[in-house]
Amino acid sequence: MIQENIEIHDKYQFELKIGYKILEEDVDTLYNIEMYFFIPTSLDVNKNNYSKSDFYNDLQTYIRFKAPTVILRNIATGNGDFPIQKLKNSFEQLINHQDDESIAKYVRQIKMFSCIIKSALRDHVHFISKQKSNDDFNALVNEYINLVPIIATKYRELKSIINVPNISSKLHSYYLFGDEYLSFMIEESTYNLINYIKKHHHDVAGNFTAKLYDIIQNELNNRKSNQYPSIPKADDDNEELIFRKSVLKKFTSSVLYLKTTTEKEGVLLEQILFGIAAGCSMMFATAVAFYSQQKYGSISTTVFILLIISYIFKDRIKELLRIYFAQKIHSYLFDNKTNLFTAEKENIGWTKEGFYFTKDYNVPKEIMQIRNRDHITEIENGWMGEKIAVYMENVNLFSKKLIDIYKDYTMEGINNIMRFDVSKFLHKMDNPKKSLYVLDEQGHREVHGKRVYHLNLVIKYSSKHDTTYKRFRIVLNRDGIRRIEEIFSEKEAK
Q1: Residues 445 and 458 in one domain
Q2: Which domain holds residue 237?
Q3: Nearest-angstrom CA–CA distance, 412 and 277
Q4: What is the pLDDT of residues 348-371, one digit of tens each?
């Protein structure tokens, strides 16, 4: 029910993409995520110098719907209730009646079609890479070669519907944006397929590469004929192409992104408890004042000294109680609550998140077993253990409401994309290059080795149906992230 993928985003950030499936049979769909960061002591990252605000500044989150799953074959046919037909219907509706609703539907269908195509192309190429049988591999590559030009042609045939005088240049430009981005996606996925074939099936590459290169050339010709400034050049930095591709990606994918509002958890309870702390301290000061006046009279040196002492302790009692209550409520409440809204401002769920440092003995036994420390790890950390940071997230999706809102496409779930910046973990690291010597015919020579650190990440995913445990080793040095290794994976049914 939960799907996850972790990869390096850039030299300082890794990206964790978590997919939550919407359970149609439930009113609400609930998921829990627990992430345990085992941080080497030598990195000097702890609760005293790495606060909650530091963590949330390093964590960048994007929440969006998963693109509806439609296979290339069904997109190419364009029959019934499939994307091409829905796109055509929105074009015809726009021609017949241009109001806010028809314009919004027209733009939305172009964006949704682009997202569906992108997902379908990626999934088809990925499926090809999983084939063990040569016959299946050949059939799927030929299917790609046959279907992709059909899909591109069907989209471009729709141009004649809106190429009429009563369609403004702005409305027409939305179609052109979709066309250019479709060309980008076809080009990219085809290059990916060619690279895979040349690397893993080089013996049969000649059977396919010419036809695949023809697909790319047709896309380049289409962009030239439409005068899109997005033709890659070998002797250029291709700045405008990269910029346009990025902008068009944001334009089309915006249809899937959710609007969010974030609020701090337990603000009212926190203020009530802080008020109680102030009341307790005032009660102490008032009691001392009453007692001293009854015992020593209303005006005396003793009363004066006792009132000063009570004021000092009143202030300290108030502050100590505030700290005590803050620690207690944050151990039971999350740090933030994020409400999820569609583009139409319909509330379709929420997420709650919390972050804190903890000790070994507070970590569940199964998590520590998965961490599986060895003596090398203990030596690395001076036999003092690692610093353990915990990030927790609860997700609640309003399943029935989502099904009622989205009737044209089935929304299977949402993707929570987390990018975490490790820059603050690198400050205390040693020089990444270390000198070593090796023997050779002349005696010895100097070589260089890499000094690395291991950030271990254990993740527990829980849903109504199962619990999954994962362990990853993020290998770092002062230059950034070198690689990410999956060490452990286990699923337990409930």
Answers
A1: yes
A2: 72-255
A3: 48
A4: 888 899 898 988 888 998 998 888
